[in-house]
Write a structure and sequence with these properties.
Elements (H helix, E strand, L loop, with lengths): L14 E3 L2 E3 L5 E2 L6 E2 L6 E5 L5 E5 H7 L1 E2 L6 E2 L4 E4 L2 E4 H7 E3 L6 E3 L4 E3 L2 E3 L1 H20 L1
Parallel strand pairs: 5-8
Antiparallel strand pairs: 1-2, 3-4, 5-6, 7-8, 9-10, 11-12, 13-14
Bound molecules: zinc ion (4 copies).
Length: 143
C-alpha cells in the first residue's frame, strides 16, 4: 500500500522512503544518487548532466555535485561549467560573457577584454602587449 495515494502496490514495486512504502508515481527518483525521495524530503531539481541532457535529481545532489550558473540560473555538471572570479557559469553563458586572455589565460569579462591582433587580452596583459608592440615598432624604426 502506498502511504501517499493508498494505491495497492506489489512488494517488488514499492519504493521505501524513510521507512514508508510508496508507489513509483508518488516518489521522485534521483538520477544522480539513484535514490527515491519524496517532495517532503527534497525538492526535485532539473540539472544538466555531463552529456548535456536534463535529468531530475534531489536537492542534495544538485547542490553538492552540480554547479549553479550565475548567468541562466540553472544547474550544470562541473564538466560543463567554468569557474571565474565572479562565480560559476555554464558553457553557453561563459561564451556569452567571457573570453580567455590569450596571454595569462584568465577569464575576462567581454566588457573589459581588449582585442589586439584578433586575440583577446585582460587589461593588464593588453597593456603589456601594447608596450611590446611599441618596442618592436621602435626597434624597426631604429634599424
Ligand atoms: Zn502512490
Ligand atoms: Zn540524489
Ligand atoms: Zn548558464
Ligand atoms: Zn591576461
Amino acid at each position: 500500500m502506498c502511504c501517499e495515494c493508498n494505491d495497492r502496490i506489489d512488494e517488488d514495486d514499492a519504493c521505501w522512503v524513510n521507512g514508508n512504502s510508496y508507489c513509483t508515481d508518488c516518489v521522485n527518483y534521483c538520477e544522480n544518487c539513484h535514490e527515491h525521495f519524496t517532495d517532503d524530503c527534497y525538492t526535485v531539481y532539473t540539472v544538466q548532466n555531463n552529456r548535456g541532457y536534463n535529468i531530475q535529481v534531489c536537492e542534495r545532489c544538485a547542490q553538492e555535485d552540480y554547479y549553479y550558473c550565475e548567468g541562466c540560473h540553472e544547474y550544470y555538471h562541473p564538466d560543463n561549467t567554468h569557474y571565474t572570479d565572479n562565480g560559476a557559469y555554464c558553457d553557453d553563458c561563459y561564451d556569452d560573457r567571457f573570453v580567455r586572455c590569450d596571454n595569462c589565460c584568465d577569464d575576462v569579462d567581454k566588457d573589459d577584454a581588449e582585442e589586439i591582433d584578433g586575440e583577446y587580452y585582460c587589461e593588464s596583459c593588453a597593456d603589456d602587449m601594447r608596450a611590446e608592440l611599441e618596442d618592436e615598432d621602435d626597434e624597426e624604426e631604429a634599424a
